[in-house]
Design goal:
The protein is an alpha/beta fold. It contains 17 helices and twelve strands. The chain starts with 12 loop residues before the first helix and ends with a helix.
Length: 437
């Protein structure tokens, strides 16, 4: 096919194989472990096919900025507008956030992209974002064209059948997979350890939890009786499904989901987790003053509480979340990359794709029950640091003791990345002398 350039990037073997697989049918999804360089598959296509028009779709502004910086550093002569409104007839690459593309769908269609790259492709299966994933490509015979999805995790076809089928229909099947185990074998990820610390609830939190637990037990008994009367089988895993068969849709099922959500939310904001996480940050910064730490929560309110507690401990930090101005989030990330900031607190904005290789310590105060999010978050600290090739990464997860449902999901994610150490936090503190050395 035309518009081919002989100029190539210096790719890892797995990246070259993934490019070749995509070129066979010019469609499909590449699933690769966080931190292994999925972006370079798209960059290689841009380098090879410089006359084709590329549209890169990202879920967040932070990722869009990161993509633009990488493209400019590798493909110097390509025109990449910072804003979709500043496009020109000469524009060959557009990198834009999914929400912006939806607002300017007519402009994109008039521009006629040949190749669409969906970064974090699993994010675009909702009713709102499907408009983007269904965008057509211009199939000119003399230009390369097609759709490429990039992700670290693909929707489970059993838990999210609709999402899985949407990706299959509009982007294609999974054409290449590169696992964390393979990346570790190829030494493309930093060595790492995971520590899980269980903390107790305070008295008022315990009282609230007991009320929720009583409600959950009552509803579970009610659901089982209803299902038995209908000859149906009840499993807790049903609560995870986005779409239930019609015969399973009874009011108690939805009430049970709400009760589980309340319990999860109580655990998300448990005050002992916030206190212990901030104490850990304080200890790390005293021992290793020039280190960088990321703290993850599940709610903006909790992130702000963490920031206030760190301020009380005289520790400077920045929050990164959707309620901040994008420029504020960008400044925080820039300071962290430049080592002018030691602590950053995020909700979900930084779950995916952000390249922060200097991160050595990841503290997770709250995490969803999804394996996908666990892997994505841990991936923030697994990237190789070219300025510190001896980097050892540490992930510290706080969870409420006795919550077997949540602990099981954390352990599943930890085991999935092949290096699970079910140690208590005290052992981590004891190991700090080794970290410093």
């Amino acid at each position: 096919m035309g518009s081919h350039s002989s100029s190539r990037l210096d790719l890892f073997d797995w990246q070259s194989e993934a490019v070749n697989e995509w070129l066979k049918n010019r469609s499909g999804i590449v699933v690769a472990a966080p931190g292994t360089g999925k972006t370079f598959i798209a960059l290689e296509l841009m380098k090879r096919y410089q006359l084709s028009r590329f549209l890169v779709v990202t879920p967040t502004q932070a990722l869009a900025i990161q993509w633009r910086q990488k493209i400019r550093s590798i493909i110097e002569k390509r025109s990449i507008p910072l804003d979709i409104n500043y496009m020109s007839p000469q524009t060959t690459i557009i990198v834009e956030v999914v929400n912006t593309i939806i607002r300017h769908e007519d402009i994109i269609n008039d521009w006629c992209p040949n190749i669409i790259i969906f970064d974090e492709v699993h994010r675009y299966t909702s009713d709102v974002f499907q408009k983007v994933i269904k965008l057509p490509v211009s199939k000119k015979s003399d230009l390369m064209y097609g759709k490429l999805g990039l992700t670290a995790t693909i929707p489970d076809p059993e838990l999210r059948p609709n999402a899985h089928s949407i990706l299959l229909k509009h982007v294609g099947e999974v054409i290449y997979s590169y696992t964390i185990a393979e990346a570790r074998k190829d030494e493309l990820l930093s060595p790492y350890s995971i520590f899980i610390s269980q903390v107790g609830l305070l008295e008022d939190e315990e009282e609230e939890l007991q009320k929720i637990e009583d409600r959950i037990q009552f509803l579970k008994d009610s659901v089982r009786k209803t299902f038995e009367a209908r000859g149906l089988r009840f499993e807790i895993s049903m609560l995870l499904r986005q779409h239930l068969p019609k015969e399973y849709k009874i009011p108690e099922i939805f009430q049970l989901r709400q009760a589980y959500f309340k319990r999860r939310h109580l655990n998300f904001k448990a005050r002992n987790k916030i206190y212990n996480a901030c104490l850990t940050v304080q200890i790390l910064l005293k021992k290793i003053p020039d280190t960088q730490i990321m703290v993850y929560t599940m709610t903006i309110d909790t992130a702000e509480q963490v920031a206030k507690e760190l301020e009380r401990l005289e520790i400077t930090s920045s929050t990164v979340h959707s309620q901040n101005d994008p420029s504020e989030n960008h400044l925080a990330l820039t300071k962290l990359r430049d080592r002018r900031l030691s602590v950053i607190i995020s909700v979900r904005t930084l779950d995916e794709g952000i390249d922060l290789p200097q991160l050595r310590f990841l503290i997770i105060i709250a995490n969803s029950k999804q394996l996908r999010q666990m892997l994505q978050r841990i991936g923030r600290t697994l990237r190789i640091d070219r300025e510190n090739l001896d980097k050892q990464a540490y992930v510290i997860v706080f969870e409420v003791s006795g919550d077997e449902f949540d602990l099981a999901s954390i352990e599943e994610g930890a085991r999935a990345i092949m290096y699970y150490l079910p140690d208590q936090l005290e052992e981590f503190y004891q190991d700090l002398t080794k970290i410093i050395d």
